[in-house]
Amino acid sequence: MSATPVVEVAHLRKTYGEKVAVDDVSFAVQPGEIFGILGPNGAGKTTTVECLAGLRQADGGTTRVLGVDTQADPGAVRGLLGVQLQESALHDKITVGEAVRLFASFYPRPADVGELLDLLDLAQHQGVQYAKLSGGQKQRLSIALALVGDPRVAVLDELTTGLDPQARRNTWDLVERVRSRGVTILLVTHFMEEAERLCDRLVVIDGGRVVAAGTPPELIDGIDDTRTVQLRLPEADAARGREVLARLAASHADVHSVADAGGVTAVTGTRRVLFAVVPALADADVLPDDVRTVSRTLEDVFVAVTGRTYDPDAAGTRAVRTADGAGRRRELTSTADRGDRS
Ligand code: ATP
To answer: pTM for the complete prediction?
Structure first.
């Protein structure tokens, strides 16, 4: 990772009146990476990329794309950075082919329109009007429009919001296809799964600040050493099984706690918790109907660093326990505090 960064954001700060939307955000994106900016709604992701694209004047810090200072020279970044911002506003009657050719005409050296339509599986929909496209096709068109200037870097903002799971997965494949053509991608998302699946590295932003940065495995491995095993005990032996596990939690260094909910017994402990649970149940001749280890995700990282649960579909994160696990609860800001962007 010693190449010159394609994108550099250093100590970026942006306020809207009293509201601090972005507060000292820094990160660098290397050539060929899919780099994620992940965070709940209202975290400051869009403001960050709008400053990077020279669409907003920052209050402090620097933003560079391929060495160009985008705050000082917003015009110079146009051909370098393709931006797919949320909700592209196209006329209902414009066809796919017309839209792509129209946008291509804005650039001195546009991408090959035919190739672009092929890449995005839009060639067969060239004659279809915008209003008649499905959600997934509209998103693919908006990505095409971001790429039509043949940029070295593309910003894709919330590109799978509103798509069904299949269309979302198709779009992920597409993003990888775009990257394999040499485009560096800055992916803005509030979907944990999307970030985990696609991003080489990412920053997690919350309340305008970077709260975690790294590769998904680094972030996940960095949170703590706790592991959970979930068991479904057979009805006839459930009481005995729970007794065995409760004794284990009281006596075994690798087993910290046991909890029951909805017919599932969750045993939490160290990385070696499974080694303790299975022999103890075997000794008692309790054969679970189901055993699974719970994999940790970026969602656990978010909880660990912010002390709050993460709800991608809600307007913000929900009230939850604090990071120290003390069980205190607090309400969180959501998009309710959003001002008028226009
Ligand atoms: P979303 O995914 O909902 O767009 P985000 O993480 O991209 O969220 P931003 O849109 O950058 O977040 O907003 C960051 C904060 O700044 C939010 O509290 C938002 O309400 C506020 N904000 C954004 N634009 C404006 C504006 N033009 N005027 C006032 N406040 C704004």
So the answer is: 0.78
